[in-house]
Amino acid sequence: MNSSDKLNTTERRELDNSEFGLPQQRAYPMPDAAHVRAAEAYFRYAPDTEKAELARNILRKAEEFGVKVNSPTILEWAQK
Predict the structure, then answer these.
(1) Does some domain include residue 42?
(2) Which end of the chain is less enclosed by CB atoms within 10 A, N or C?
(3) Quick one: which H or E segment has residue 39?
(4) Residue 1 falls inside a structural domain
């Protein structure tokens, strides 16, 4: 990954679907801790129909990378 923590087109294309918060749309990439935090920050922009899946995937990737998710909104959506 490049030093700016922003994925370029090639890097994003090379990610497996499992690296995304919403794999079907390949949205919310989370290949590392910085991107897990970004997905958490942008969670509110996800469509309500996708939030439960995204919340669960954020928590799964957060655990993988040792990121503490404090958002009560994400924790609530993950239970739905």
Answers:
(1) yes
(2) C
(3) helix 33-42
(4) no
Residue 53: enclosing H or E segment and its boundaries?
Answer: helix 48-65
Encoded amino acid at 68, one letter:
K
Q: Where in the sequence is the domain holding 27, given as residue range(s)?
A: 9-78
Residue recorded with tokens 């996708």: 50
Tell me, yes or no, whether 2 lies in a domain. Answer: no
Instruction: Indicate whether this model's pTM tops 0.85.
Output: yes
Higher pLDDT, 76 or 70: 76
The structural domain count of the chain equals 1
Can you give the length of the chain in residues?
80
Residue the block writes with tokens 């294309």 = 13
| Nearest by Cα to 62 from 44, 45, 27, 38 | 38
Would 46 be classed as within a structural domain?
A: yes
Strands (DSSP E) contained in the chain are 20-22, 27-29
